[in-house]
Amino acid sequence: MQIPVYLINLSTSPERLEKSNKRLTEQNIEYTRVEGVLGKALSQQEVDLHYSKAVNSAKYHTPLTLGQIGCYYSHRKVWQLIAEGDAPFGVIMEDDFHLTGDLQKAIDTIKSLSIEWDLIKLAAYQSRERKIAYSQPINAVFNLVVHSKAMSGGAATALTKEAAKRLLAATDKFGRPCDSDIQHMWETGVDVLSLMPYPVSQDMDFESTISAKKEPRKKYFWKRKLQQLKASIANKKAVKGQISRLQRHFDK
Fold first, then answer.
1. Measured distance CA(68)–CA(72) in Å, rounded
2. Would the CA dihedral through 60, 167, 23, 194 be positive or negative?
3. What does 89-128 look like in DSSP terms, one character per residue?
């Protein structure tokens, strides 16, 4: 079965679509464009459908911008497509990427996995690095990796059908940015892995379409520090559980 690749693209960003199409076509990757959600075009009723000020106040240190809300809605659209589709998983791509490796080989590698998995990062935000807590070679090219904290970045992600359903249910009301919620694995019930070396990187030549520069927000320093401390404790437990499950599988 062919694995669907979904490209999130705003109608206001035709140049991004042109570049994305060229890059994917060069590797013979078929894809489906998904209309991105422009946050500033949402009505208050549409914003309130899933964004919760109460959840935001309880779980995050500053209100989300309309751009962040639109980004979240865009990803939820693709999660819904994967949840309702026939394929066991799908690949989600944002339109600011470079293909730095063989994307199809990465997809084929994921198809070959004998373990149960939920979400696999195929790129990192701004190509940032993070301490690796566990790494397992899968083939001559790729390793399956658990980071000390799940990597952020939405340039390219693989997501299973069942995990998409869990993400949709867990984030029906959200108050954090999409990436932040995904990092909170112990809340969503969706484990996050990475396939490395990443076959995709973020194209830094594009200006962010969810920039908050024009939306000044009040931030709460100590509230953030307390949230980070609680998350750090829960994250260590979640990562330990991930590693234990993978070791049991690969050490058989």
1. 6
2. positive
3. EEEEEESSEEE-S-HHHHHHHHHT--S--SEEESS-GGG-
Residue among 73, 71, 145 nearest 109 (CA): 145
Q: Does residue 215 surpass a pLDDT of 60?
A: no
Predicted TM-score (pTM) of the model is 0.92
Q: Whole-angstrom Cα distance, residue 54 to residue 57? A: 5
Q: What is the pLDDT of residues 48-70, one digit of tens each?
A: 999 999 999 999 999 999 999 99
Lowest average pLDDT, out of 37-51, 95-109, 131-145, 206-220, goes to: 206-220
- Tell me how many degrees the CA angle 237-107-134 measures, rounded to the nearest 5: 25
Amino acid making up residue 58: A
The Cα 213–Cα 198 span in angstroms is 29
CA angle, residues 176, 84, 150, in degrees to nearest 5? 35
